[in-house]
């Protein structure tokens, strides 16, 4: 999927008919849509393919926490953020021809829909699929949500031309306010994805899996209830232990698209300070807060095997 | 007798810079052939030889320079033969059916020998390989019988001007996995991938027992005998190391799939070997589509902590994927693959 381009005209029509003047609950679904159910995906794969209109596509996955109060993030993206995400990537060109996928993240322990998965799209169809998400509002009070389910899914069930044809990794951002889970159990994988696995997988193992194909980041929503109620130090500590500088701090959730675009820019070689300076006002502050510690991606040997000395 | 007139201008100009042996034959003939060719193509004879004579003359001089440089470095390769001029004066000659680049130098594949010529800058890695291979031990004669033929047996090693060369035995029926994969069109039936992986996991269990980690599980280093469903891990020992030892060097393809804890601690652990086995499995399948879901899932997931645990899981994967064990014939032999001129 991904044969199309995002246009302001399409976006205006979408907001006029789907979001303007509506409440969150009337914008989003109230049950799990079959089209987003990862167990029902044809051939078990989501594809991001080059096309005449997007000849050098780049896969970008945005996994949104849809538990508790975190639905506010999806709401903000559906009203304004998606336009910012696409137009800023088109204008700034940190990567070419973006193909965006949204995921809804819940809790594999207790939620009915712990993982929802859209297609990869390059045009307004991604907005339609975004509002198909069910903001279940669950979560188990266990100080973590199943942020590693997107890692498993992306590592095992996506096939992306940017990596397969050009050796260039896609991007995967998960967004939420809780700690990463320690483990994804065999039973959870079976229930959520009908996965034929032999054992449980630790988060670091799943990170190994997904980073073969994706540059992985987690955005910590500091305005989330869990962080506001004293959980932030623990959330920061655990995500940083897992992802290092790629655990990004978001202090204004309405600036998520700008933070995502900026993180991609930095990872593609721009300096964090220079990127932050390209935004204005509150956006610049939010971006600086998020990416200040992020290092540009080091050059690594790819393609033919070469010697790496330690 | 060499006839300088027999070679046309285009034929000479088409000889690559790094293959001067094609023009000059053997080291003994280098000087005489060069004289004959230079006289024939000298610009003084341009009217007779055509408009390219100056260009050809300059190219012959260039190839002559490259040939002398190769000889100075102890190399001389003609189709099917390699001569290594060792620093101690001994000339080692070997016939070969394949030449391949393995990142650290060149490999020469004969029917019953393999020569690995490593660039001098990787002398430490060669030393590491020789030391580890010399110290391979077995718990019992039964283990020796099972494993010894699946592991490398050095025949000799020596130095030439810019390379260090290791020659090891190659079982006569063994095919380099890369060559078999190419022969099969870069994709292999899942059943054949499965027996190769069974063999590799068996070797991984031995490595675990021996306290070793192999850091370059690749098609270049694995040799198989399809008639016996047997695999040997003969190459890549430059990147082997004791488990838990500090990492020194690894190929980038291994680093790309190695477990995060090993990368961060810079310590060797068995999952480096086991993830390498999965990577080879994925590469062998290529575009093959008829792959049981349980099998393809196992191939892509990270490995557990020990080879024994992995081998145990693998038995259930095999049963789930292919049912009761049956010998899957793969009617390919060394003579099919290493035909002259292939």
Summarize the structure.
The complex is a heterodimer of chains A (310) and B (342). Chain A has helices at 8-18, 24-27, 71-92, 125-130, 149-157, 161-166, 186-193, 203-210, 225-243, 256-267, 272-277, 281-291; strands at residues 46-48, 58-65, 98-105, 115-117, 158-160, 170-176, 183-184, 201-202, 214-221, 247-250, 307-309.
If you had to describe this structure to a student in words, what would you say it looks like?
- Chain A has helices spanning 8-18, 24-27, 71-92, 125-130, 149-157, 161-166, 186-193, 203-210, 225-243, 256-267, 272-277, 281-291; strands at 46-48, 58-65, 98-105, 115-117, 158-160, 170-176, 183-184, 201-202, 214-221, 247-250, 307-309.
- Chain A is built from twelve helices and eleven strands.
- Residues 299-303 of chain A have low confidence and may be disordered.
- Chain A has a six-stranded mixed β-sheet with strand order 4-3-2-6-9-10, with helices on both faces.
- Chain A is 39% helix and 16% strand.
- In chain A, 52% of the residues are buried.
- The longest helix of chain A is centred in the first third of the chain and has 22 residues, at 71-92.
- Chain A has 310 residues and is α/β, with parallel strands linked by helices.
- With 342 residues, chain B is α+β, with helices and mostly antiparallel strands.
- The interface between A and B is medium-sized, with 26 and 33 residues.
- Strand 11 of chain A pairs antiparallel with strand 14 (249-251) of chain B.
Distance between the termini of chain B: 28 Å
Q: Please give the number of β-strands of chain B.
A: 14
Query: So how many helices of chain B?
Result: 15
User: What does the radius of gyration of chain B come to?
Assistant: 24 Å
How does the overall form of chain A come out from the CA principal axes?
globular
Percentage of residues in strands of chain B: 15-25%
Q: What percent strand of chain A? A: 15-25%
**Run of helices and strands of chain B:** HHHHHEEEEEEHHEEEHHEEEEEHHHHHH
Mean pLDDT of chain B: 91
Quaternary status of these chains?
Answer: heterodimer
Provide the spatial order of strands within the biggest beta sheet of chain A. Answer: 4-3-2-6-9-10
Give the neighbour order of strands across the main sheet of chain B. 4-5-6-8-7
Low-confidence stretches of chain A: 299-303
For the largest beta-sheet of chain B, the strand count, sense and barrel status come to: 5 strands, antiparallel
Largest sheet of chain A: 6 strands, mixed
Give the structural class of chain A: alpha/beta
The dominant shape of chain B is elongated
How far is it from the N-terminal to the C-terminal residue of chain A, by CA? Answer: 41 Å
**Helical fraction of chain B:** 40-55%
